[in-house]
Design a protein that fits this description.
Elements (H helix, E strand, L loop, with lengths): L1 H22 L4 H17 L3 H8 L6 H20 L3 H28 L6
Helix pairs in contact: 2-4, 4-5
């Protein structure tokens, strides 16, 4: 049953993003920011955790999950350091993921040798 929920929820999220891309003038970058902010908002109102328990991997698609990770990091840093935690919490919580993306992106650029379009 969990696999069914994961595919169903992940498919609905992808379908909604596709509809946004086709029916609005929003650019992909803005839609990505919208997804990250949605993940952070769902975490802030404490809906994200029950949502991921229900949907499993389907709800933890990278951008929603990244937004939630940022929220968790900021919340923990505020609890520990006060106001300054707003600025450091997101970086601390997401540093490993961002570093991995940079390293693997760099390695892919070396392996596949991308060229600029003319």
């Amino acid at each position: 049953m969990d696999y069914v929920n994961a595919f169903w929820v992940g498919g609905v999220i992808c379908a909604l993003v596709q509809i946004l891309m086709e029916k609005t003038k929003l650019l992909p970058g803005r839609i990505m920011v919208l997804l990250v902010c949605t993940g952070a908002f769902l975490g802030a109102i404490q809906i994200y955790e029950p949502f991921t328990e229900f949907a499993g991997a389907g709800a933890s698609v990278p951008l929603l999950g990244f937004g939630n990770v940022l929220w968790k990091g900021v919340k923990e840093a505020i609890d520990e350091f006060g106001f300054i935690g707003i600025f450091m919490g997101g970086f601390k919580a997401s540093a490993v993921g961002i570093s991995a993306a940079l390293v693997f992106g760099y390695l892919a650029s070396i392996i596949f040798q991308p060229k600029m379009k003319k």
